[in-house]
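Please decode residue identities from the backbone states below.
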């Protein structure tokens, strides 16, 4: 039947999910635009329209042979509700220099965001496309130094590095780098690679950043049911300018074991997914995966917010023993529990326990120790099934 069909659009009011965990950062080499984006300046983007407004478009990438719009558009494709702080720096700025806490680049972006950035991606767009993986390794080292310093300044952050120059024929054991707050993305879209030979060895760090920002802090971005990355510029995944389907299973296993992140597919299910959520530290480390870091970082922020008002406050002690007053012990334990109850209610942790030892000698030390224990959620990295025939006779 002939009719007038009117489709309702959603999202025009700009209402957003009130989730601070998704606030992210991106720093990359770029080119300044008259009347648009400037170098070494921070910008906050609430959607792709904000990027277009400062001149970061698909044409911007093409004209300057860099990938900035690509990473930003992928971030917002994966997480349309994302909140992204960005900074572009001159192409002469080295990969490790961008992350050096002594320089006003990544450090400046994190400081100006006042601790709101929970995960930071770093994309490398030098003038030369001949990037050695040794430059990435230097960036990883500087990234961990930066993350350590940010933690001491009460701004914990996880850093995602674009694995420029990655060579699957000469693997580096990223797991042995003692960089628990850093992850390296080497997966790429061969559609992007096909646009320009200068991008043959880029990595889709913007896609990863979008997935991490979308995930609850305890979720692995490789969760098949939730994190299908197919779409946008990503339909043919690859590594090091090689089609994923052309790479042997043995090589993919080796890349996975090295601690790198890349795209993969699953037989029997359409889509493109991540292999895992590795960090650059040993598998035996408590922080061997991104979700371990994000969970503990969120808990740290919540605990500090709950206890900070009590800093320098008077503390009652038992007048006969000097031990902590029972009421004081209980009040601190209650404050600590309230700080983490929301994470427990959100199933971001499996359990929590808070203990204040009443035998502390606060009159001598002026220090009050509060012990927190968090039982994390597990991750189904492997599901083992036993199956066989049965004769009911």
């Amino acid at each position: 039947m002939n009719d007038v069909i009117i489709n309702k659009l959603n999202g025009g009011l700009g209402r957003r999910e009130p989730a601070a965990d998704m606030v992210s950062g991106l720093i990359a080499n770029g080119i300044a635009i008259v009347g648009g984006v400037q170098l070494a300046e921070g910008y906050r983007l609430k959607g792709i329209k904000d990027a277009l407004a400062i001149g970061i478009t698909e044409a911007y990438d093409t004209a300057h042979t860099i990938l900035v719009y690509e990473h930003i558009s992928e971030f917002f494709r994966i997480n349309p509700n994302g909140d992204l702080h960005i900074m572009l720096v001159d192409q002469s700025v080295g990969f490790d220099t961008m992350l050096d806490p002594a320089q006003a680049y990544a450090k400046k972006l994190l400081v100006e965001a006042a601790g709101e950035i929970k995960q930071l991606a770093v994309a490398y767009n030098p003038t030369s496309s001949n990037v050695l993986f040794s430059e990435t390794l230097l960036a990883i080292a500087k990234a961990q130094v930066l993350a350590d310093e940010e933690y001491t300044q009460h701004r914990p952050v996880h850093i995602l590095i674009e694995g420029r120059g990655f060579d699957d024929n000469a693997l580096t054991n990223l797991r042995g780098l003692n960089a628990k707050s850093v992850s390296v993305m080497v997966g790429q879209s061969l559609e992007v690679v096909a646009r320009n030979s200068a991008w043959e060895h880029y990595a889709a760090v913007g896609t990863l950043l979008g997935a991490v920002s979308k995930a609850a802090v305890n979720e692995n971005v490789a969760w098949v049911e939730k994190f299908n990355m197919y779409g946008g510029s990503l339909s043919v995944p690859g590594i090091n300018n090689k089609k994923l389907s052309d790479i042997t299973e043995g090589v993919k296993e080796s890349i996975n074991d090295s601690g790198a992140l890349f795209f993969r597919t699953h037989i029997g299910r359409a889509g493109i997914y991540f292999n895992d959520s590795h960090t650059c530290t040993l598998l035996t480390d408590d922080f061997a995966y991104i979700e371990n870091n994000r969970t503990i970082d969120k808990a740290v922020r919540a605990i500090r917010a709950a206890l900070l008002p009590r800093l320098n406050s008077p503390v009652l002690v038992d007048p006969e023993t000097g031990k902590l007053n029972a009421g004081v012990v209980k009040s601190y334990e209650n404050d600590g529990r309230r700080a983490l109850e929301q994470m427990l209610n959100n199933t971001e942790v499996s359990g929590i326990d808070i203990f204040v030892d009443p035998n502390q000698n606060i009159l001598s030390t002026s220090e009050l120790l509060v012990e927190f224990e968090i039982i994390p959620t597990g991750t189904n990295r492997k599901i083992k099934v036993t199956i066989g025939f049965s004769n009911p006779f």
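Observation: The chain is about 30% helix and 15% strand.
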